[in-house]
Amino acid sequence: MVRRVRAILLVVLASSLLILELLGAPGWGHPVDNLAPASGDQTPNPAVAKAATPLDHLPALAGGYFRIDSRAVGRPFHIYVRLPDGYETDSDRRYPTVYVLDGDSLFPILAASHLFLTYDLGLPEAVVVGISYGSFAPDTNRRGFDFSAPTPDGDPARGGAENFHRFLSSELLPRIEKDYRVDPERRILFGQSRGGSMVLYSAFRHPDLFWGRIANNPAFDPGRELYFSTPAPAERKDLGLVVTSGSEDYPPLREAALAWSAAWQDADTAPWAHEVLTIPGGTHSAYSGTSYRLGLLWLYCRDGSWSPPDESLCLESEQSPEPESRGER
Fold first, then answer.
1. Per-block average pLDDT, block size 10, for the chain (329 residues)?
2. I need a surface site. Which of 102, 180, 247, 281 has the fewest CB within 10 A?
3. pLDDT at residue 8, rounded to an integer
């Protein structure tokens, strides 16, 4: 019995040594580990540096990247730019620009989605810009502060929306419009949850900056008073604001969206055309692609510059939530 156990242990040991030897050979193990310089050699390996830019091999997301150290906010942002298919060959064309808040998570989803919206629905191509913090860690990702309006009690954890908007208007937008062929008359801002609150803040305080805005399941608090008050006036007459609300969103947010819809339904003081669209079955975070599609359809259908392949697409983007929906959860 002892001999049999020893034999089994020897087989296991030999197998383990063979696996370790194979993992150390070229082509095995973690690819970056195998490309690392030998011990004592601190010279960066070009292959490792190349591996740090994987978007080069994802054409649906390909475009550019830069870091911008914001004076207005006092912190850096990581900016990802997705260029339209054919951008390099059509040198005279200028494109709409979609600025995506919470780019850390939403840029990969919505930038790739835009490609298929163009393929399937014929929506205009666009340069998609993801505004990212570079981390989900609270000490780096300050979205709760940057995207919120000041509170009546002066909560120091909220109230950075004006500085963030200054970053957009005076730092990021000029950089994008200098470096890329975009149409400054066709800027769109997309935000979800707290990012949706930032979209509303922009619409109420600085309506002229963006032609179109899409707020998905926006957080109305803090700052609710602002979103039910008279917005700042606008010079432009072609502005549009879409609020999308999932029927299965958190009840306080769903109820706030319906209350906002009712408050603005017949108001004539808004500087933008507006619509509230219900996403049947939509939850808080998982339907950003649906919100993006419905919001763009509504903006382009009302604009009249785009001819849909099927008129039902525009009808799909014109359904408003019914007041009875308040009690659906």
1. 44 39 33 33 41 72 94 97 91 95 96 95 96 94 94 82 98 98 98 97 98 97 90 96 97 96 88 95 96 96 83 69 40
2. 281
3. 41
54-327 fold: Rossmann fold (3.40.50)
Total H helices, total E strands in the chain: 12, 8
Q: Is the dihedral of CA 258, 263, 267, 272 positive or negative?
A: negative
Q: Tell me the three state secondary structure of residue 157.
A: coil
**pLDDT at residue 53, rounded to an integer:** 57
Handedness of CA 180, 178, 210, 105 (dihedral sign): positive
Widest CA span in the chain: 92
pLDDT of residue 309: 82
Report which secondary-structure segment, H or E, holds 289: helix 288-303
**Which amino acid, 153?**
D
At 265 the pLDDT is 85
Could you tell me which residues come within 8 angstroms of residue 171 by beta carbon, excluding any fewer than 6 positions away?
A: 68, 70, 71, 72
Instruction: Name the segment(s) of the chain with CATH classification 3.40.50.1820.
Output: 54-327
* Terminal alpha carbon distance of the chain: 66
Distances (CA, A) of 56 to 28, 60, 110: 23, 10, 18
| CA 228 to centroid of chain Cα atoms | 25
Paired sense of beta strands 182-192 and 273-279, if any: unpaired
**Residue 105, CA distances (Å) to 37, 115, 190, 224 in order:** 32, 17, 13, 26
